Amino acid sequence: MRRRLSTLLGLAQLILLLSCATPVGQQVPSGVDIPAETKVDLAEAIAPELTAAPLSSVASTVPHSGTSSSNNEKSDQVNNLSSDAETPAARVHLVATVWEEEPRLPILNYHQFSPESAKFSTAVKTRLPDLQAHLQSLYDSGYSLISLEGWLKGDLHVPEGRRPLIITMDDLFYNNQLTLTEGGDPDPSSGIGVMWEFSEAHPDFGFQLALFATLGDKLYANPSFPTWEDKLGEAIAWGFDHGAITYNHFYTHPHLDQIEPRHIVWNARKNDEYLRSLLEQVGRDDIIPSLSNIFALPYSVWPTKPISIQLLLAYENPEGLPLQAVMESDFISRAKFLPPPYAPDFDPWHILRIIADHNAIDHLVENSGQFPTAVHCEFEDLDQTRIEDRAFLAGEIRQALKQGRCPEGVYSLGGKVFTASSSGVHLIFPEDGGG
To answer: Which helix (H) or strand (E) holds 191?
Structure first.
């Protein structure tokens, strides 16, 4: 009896010790002069939702089965001792884009398009056969299209072995820029239709466009045609669904240096409001919360009055989003190429685009080697709950370098940008780390 009592007391002590034990977790250790008062925090203005799923990561969830339970009472009691163990964290696979040289890219700017019957292309009207030749030459030289807004947010992703290129378009919407067929696809007799067909035939070229619309001045069709606004709204919505994103080029395409300050704000606001009304008219108000706030200056001309500049830079869209960037344009002879958003010379208020004429295309083809290509580095079986943790991502990159799996360079991973070398791994964008 005494032996049984001693045994029971020993078991009770053991159970007490087990119930009081604290599990030990693992942690990874942590030019126009712009008035200063009009500047906004870039990380806030460009990326208000840094927790959104990043474009630079390819993730796939690997399901894991939870702990099975039996029907008898004893098994239920054992399983209930640790509810945390019942649902293991999902695992994901991320792909980093790695730049072994400092990345930079050209931005091409198109306007209208003309049919094959036109005698020649101009700075503002490109023959469709010439556009097709442009795309083929750029593709053969290793360029792939990326998102303007993605680059501004620090998403430096590009297909492996390719070099980044942004294409923009001004003065939309003319129907020679984008028209949809009865089946809802871009008409191949329109400029965007040609780009869409080319991207379908060359998937690694991609399909990303930044469209700067002047909705009160560039009429899509004859206003006497009763359903032209519906057709326009459907074309705009198709663009948002497929990567051709509409931004603001001011409602009447004014010379901003020749109008009153209040008219600059009215032009921007009216354009924004009409865009939203067109989307609502075709039942696509679901797009509105995602609309951004980027200007392209008509004629690439800034206002001259300080108050006009201040009002332009302080403009917020109808959803309250501050201005994210201002686009200019010029010929290839005065070209500047876009650095990444963490670079000291990155200026979101003076982003220069190159007019897409033959000289520009020839220059980009002949000098393609000046624009670096990217490599990819894979990170497998990562804890999904930790991929927003910058210290965790830095540790994974450090380990990949140590193992010789990935090179030194600039890493775009998990919505963040790191520099990685033998001396360490450091977050460089966004500055606050986003997690």
So the answer is: helix 191-201
Considering only CA atoms, which of 43, 7, 27, 21 is closest in space to residue 431? 43
Strand 107-110 with 163-172, pairing? parallel
How far is Cα 182 from Cα 204, in angstroms, rounded to an integer?
28
Q: Is there a single domain that holds both residue 98 and residue 109? A: no
Using DSSP's 3-state secondary structure scheme, residue 298 falls into helix
pTM for this entry: 0.81
pLDDT at 164: 98
Listed in sequence order, the residues at least 6 apart from 293 whose beta carbon sits closer than 8 Å to its beta carbon are: 45, 248, 315, 316, 317, 321, 322, 323, 324
Q: Are residues 109 and 139 in the same domain?
A: yes
Q: What are phi and psi of 167, to 5 degrees?
A: -115, 130
Pair 95, 177 in one domain? no
Q: Which residue has the tokens 């910058």?
A: 390
- Nearest Cα to 211, choosing from 286, 126, 292, 319? 292
pLDDT digits (tens, 9 = 90+) for 62-74: 333 333 333 344 3
> What is the Cα–Cα distance from 137 to 310, expressed in whole angstroms?
41
The number of distinct structural domains making up the chain is 2
Q: What is the domain range of residue 357? A: 104-370
Residues 312 and 421 in one domain: no
Pairing of strands 351-355, 163-172: unpaired
Q: Which of 338, 370, 402 is the last residue of a domain?
A: 370
